[in-house]
Specification:
By secondary structure, the chain is an alpha+beta fold. It folds into two domains: 163 residues, Ribosomal Protein S5, domain 2; 93 residues, PDZ domain (Pdz3 Domain, Roll). The chain has a six-stranded mixed β-sheet with strand order 4-1-3-13-16-17, with helices on both faces. It starts with a helix and ends in a 7-residue tail after the last helix. The relative contact order is 0.17.
């Protein structure tokens, strides 16, 4: 082979190699993320300090290329998911990211409500309108509205929830025009849209958007939760524990490093999450002493049982604790003895 041909083939090979890094397969790969201390990112005005730490746990999720797909196949604690298991049909990357961030926001609101009520402090909400989470293609809103827009008025009707919004629109007939007032990037605007049937549901009318309530929680003392670009609802339990720990005397940590995961409902129920194996690995890597896992009332294949299995596989000394409710988690931590130095 001549030197000229050798260089040509080498260049082609390099181009193919580089291109394969940027070519996304129709899969997502999740892997262990981090265990992040919550005290630096959650601040209750005048809150109490803690000797140990409460930590949320995360997974790293990204689109798979050829190399990350192969690596995930060879790795025990990496998972591969078809794209349609992660994103809704026709959902853009922007809409997916917004959905994850909104899920985090909802998780924070529920955590604040649960923690303050447990501490005997009243909670109030101020409704600001609804968020546009998704815009359906070939529907009127697709030409005017975008994910992230906050609608606060229809015609002259100011509503307080997504249910009120839906009820108002559902009374309209095909072809009726409505005017929506919304905020985008801090600027207020209006759009006129005609109501039409949803595809495949000719007896249901709308403008083609998926909505979610936008509201602020009002509490005293105030609390600030700075999650930056962390998305998803799975940190709810740990948020609630950190907030409650800062609100009340004593210290739930007793000097231990306590990681965990689980959604939190306003009634204090702890719910199932995804990626429990990766989160156990992340917590162990961060040196956690205790890991709180959703018990799901002892169901087969529960997060707790999978966490116990993973803990044994990696040989960690971290204690795995099952929880079904916020009250159970608090009770367990309150009854810990202080960690010996």
């Amino acid at each position: 082979m001549s030197r000229k041909n050798y260089i040509r083939y080498l260049i082609i090979a390099v181009i193919i190699l580089l291109a394969s890094f940027f070519y996304n397969l129709p899969y997502y790969v999740s892997k262990p993320g981090m265990a992040k201390e919550l005290e630096p990112i959650i601040k209750v005005d005048g809150g109490y300090d803690e000797k140990g730490s409460l930590m949320l746990t995360t997974v790293r999720m990204g689109r798979a290329n050829i190399y990350s797909y192969i690596l995930a196949k060879l790795s025990k604690y990496q998972e591969i998911f078809p794209a349609d298991m992660i994103k809704y049909e026709n959902e853009t990357d922007e809409e997916y990211t917004l959905r994850q961030l909104r899920a985090m926001d909802d998780s924070k609101l529920s955590a604040i409500e649960v923690a303050y009520k447990k501490a005997g402090i009243p909670v109030k909400y101020r409704y600001k309108g609804v968020y546009v989470m998704n815009v359906l293609p070939d529907m009127p809103a697709s030409k005017k509205l975008k994910p992230g827009d906050r609608i606060f008025k229809i015609d002259n009707f100011t509503f307080k929830s997504s249910d009120e919004f839906k009820q108002y629109v559902s009374k309209k007939k095909e072809g009726d025009e409505i005017q929506v007032s919304y905020v985008r990037n801090g600027k207020t605007d209006r759009a006129k849209l005609r109501v039409m049937p949803f595809p495949g549901h000719h007896d249901q009318f709308g403008i083609g958007i998926v909505l979610e309530d936008d509201k602020d929680i009002i509490v005293d003392p105030k609390v600030k939760v700075n999650t930056d670009d962390i998305g998803g609802p799975s940190a709810g339990l740990m948020f609630a524990l950190e907030i409650y720990n800062q609100l009340t005397k004593g210290d739930l940590t007793h000097g231990f490093n306590i990681a965990g995961t689980g959604t939190i409902s306003p009634d204090g129920t702890v719910g199932r999450i995804g990626g429990i194996e990766q989160k156990v690995v992340a917590a162990d890597n961060a040196g956690a002493d205790i890991f709180l896992a959703p018990n799901e009332n002892g169901a087969n294949g529960s997060n707790y049982k999978m966490a116990v299995k993973t803990a044994k596989e990696i040989g960690t000394h971290m204690k795995i604790v099952p929880v079904d409710t916020f009250d159970e988690a608090v009770s367990y931590l309150e009854n810990l003895r202080d960690k010996k130095s």
